Amino acid sequence: METYYSPDDLVKFAEIGEDAPELWKKFSAWYGEVFQQGALSEREKALIALAVAHAVQCPYCIDAYTQASLEKGSNPEQMMEAVHVAAAIRGGASLVHGVQMRNVEKKLGAI
Amino acid sequence: MNKATENPDCQFNNFDDALKESNLFPLTSTGIEVLQINFGYLCNQTCKHCHVQAGPHRTEIISKETLESCLEILRASEIPTVDITGGAPEMNPHFEWFLKETAALQRQVMVRCNLTILLESKFEHLAQFYADQRVQVIASLPYYSKRFVDTQRGKGVFDRSIQALKKLNTLGFGDETTELLLNLVYNPAGAFLPPSQAGIEADFKRELWQRHGIRFNHLFTITNMPIGRFRDFLVKTGNYESYIQRLIAAYNPQAAAGVMCRYTLSVGWDGSLYDCDFNQILELNCNHGAPDHINEFDFEELRSRQIVTGLHCYGCTAGAGSSCGGTVVE
Ligand code: SF4
Ligand code: SF4
Questions:
Q1: Minimal CA–CA distance to B229: which of B60, B54, B61, B6?
Q2: Which of B265, B309, B317 to mutate to test the pocket of ligand 2 (most atoms within 8 A of CB)?
């Protein structure tokens, strides 16, 4: 194995089902339905998926939802703002844990 | 040399096989509802994805003689719609004469207008002319913001397109209370498929109105065909195979049943006859026994001709389908 991630692997996703077909079937059906137009539009859902893909740093999902977002009518400005939302939440989530650090510091009498 | 190296397209599933699986082979026309006339490849723009590779230096334009033949066909038939395309058809010296003659025959005339031409000094009067002749304007605007439009159609094109749209609005085009139709055409800025027509139309309406006070009637989404300059772009950027595979995977038999060649006849700038504008670029004339030039025009033979198909046809049958009038199925 020369690299852990290869674009060709994305199309092999369905092969996951070979080892647990029933679970794969349920996952696929549910996944498909999640992205249907509902209270949120397909375009909004693709943008959320794009942001989450960046938060979980999954190159497959970034590839798939960059394309999907464009195909649902989003533009690069909207997509970059979605990535900033993901980054802000990730950054904020780290930073807010500073409160815990301060709690420990207080307990230890350091501050 | 094996077959795949001779023609790289051999690796893909043949379009006729897809038609066979949907019981649509051989694909035949069901009448001639639209006479589409290509006025030639002369244009004031040189857009990145132009499927006819038009530009200011192209010299191929339709002659008055061929346009006379088109008028004869219209007089002798009841073809209700004339769809004028190019290049920028306005740059042809016989354009206004032909439009007046066609309008006098009480046919619905549509002109595919690139918008910027309406601001050029020689053609400034044409917006008013369109209003006077009750022409339906079908204008290319690949997106509602500057970046996608300028990348695809050239620097400054978005701002000039907005100016031209405002000019058309002032004359009553796009106003639901007038009968002056202004429809816009969206096509993707790159190697991806178009969004749902209804969804992106709503976005265009909201954004163009809020940002520029512009209104229009409908938005047509069109898939980029893998031919001409767009094909060169796909090959150069290593996207060709994946794009074709994407079109093939999205093949929709319902869209195939409604492709525009089934009700359109396309006349090339030199009088050649084609099933559509795309076949024209590929020099695939009408065939299978049907006349291939306007000099041999025969309504009966052409109205139920067999269509000449190829790999590019997958561009018309992907997803909700694609035609000069937007999607094929709802
Ligand atoms: S896409 Fe239209 S406006 Fe652009 S170069 Fe081609 S014919 Fe001209
Ligand atoms: S490319 Fe032309 S011939 Fe082929 S399906 Fe589309 S309209 Fe018909």
A1: B54
A2: B309
- Quick one: which of B32, B35, B16, B13 has its CA closest to B24? B16
Residues of chain B found within 8 Å of residue A41, distances taken between Cβ atoms: 199
Confidence bin at A8 (pLDDT 50/70/90): confident
Under a CB-based contact definition with an 8 Å cutoff, are residues B11 and B4 in contact? yes
Task: Report percent pLDDT > 70 for chain A.
Answer: 99
Outline where DSSP puts E strands in chain A.
none
Q: Is A73 on the interface with B (CB under 8 A)?
A: yes
Q: What is the residue with the minimal CA distance to atom 7 of ligand 2?
A: B261
Write the residue with the smallest CA distance to atom 8 of ligand 2: B261
Q: Does B142 touch chain A (CB under 8 A)?
A: no
* Residue spans of chain B under pLDDT 50: 1-5
pTM of the model: 0.89
Confidence band for A1, pLDDT divided at 50, 70 and 90: low
Q: Contact, B99 vs B133, CB < 8 A?
A: yes
What is the per-residue pLDDT across B119-130, written as a single tens digit (0 to 9) for each? 999 999 999 999
- Domains, in order of start, for chain A: 12-107 (1.20.1290.10)
What residue in A sits closest to B191 (Cα-Cα)? Answer: A67
Domains of chain B: 3-315 (3.20.20)
